[in-house]
Amino acid sequence: MPLTDEQRKLKKFIYGRIKVDEPIEPTDDRHVDIYQNLETDPVEKLKEHIELTDGESMQFFSGFRGSGKTSELFRLRKKLEANGYFVIYANALDYINPSDEIDITDLLVVIAGAFSDAIEKEFGKNPAHESYWTRLTNYLTKTTINVPEVNVKGEIDSPAKEVIGGLKAGIDLKLELKDTPSFRQNLQKILSERIGGLKTEVHKFIQDGVKLIKKKKGDDVKIVFIFDQLEQIRGSLFNEQAVIQ
Predict the structure, then answer these.
(1) pLDDT at 48
(2) 100-106 average pLDDT score
(3) 55: burial class by Cβ within 10 Å (0-12, 13-18, 19+)?
């Protein structure tokens, strides 16, 4: 049966209100608690694990694109904040190109960078009075880095020269990591030579961030960091399997 004009207008209105790629907050009038009459609520399971675990914990939360993961994580954030937690949220796709391969150096850098940006957004400042991006730039430019393929003839074209020279010239490290594959690949080569030092620097920065949060919110505050959308890295027709690997 064909739709009436009134029905068509209503359907068009509904389609306009429901957007698959738009996560919604629990306070949004479009939000529906789809788990309220079910025995299992994934948000309650995540929350319970966080509350019952002493010290540090880590949970992975995934699902099909458009299934409402981010909206549910917003609901988790609201529940935790109601219980006195300090919750930091960051979108991985603000830092990672979903079509490119990533490795452990990328992951360490973007997690620390996202943590840094979230703190700056909340407090207007960063640990040690500098962002992680500034700290990483200083680490790269002040650390002696050995690249095996560098020699007298090849030094000027080496990954270290290209990346460090660019940083000294004022490259936006966060932007280049996401948008310039050659820059990121060269940075990967450099940091893979110093993975231990990079890990130490990231841990130190996170510790400084935690100290700042506790100074602002009290020593007893519990901190949760939600790093969303990481599972959306998917590659392209040419590198899908490599990205998945």
Answers:
(1) 92
(2) 85
(3) exposed
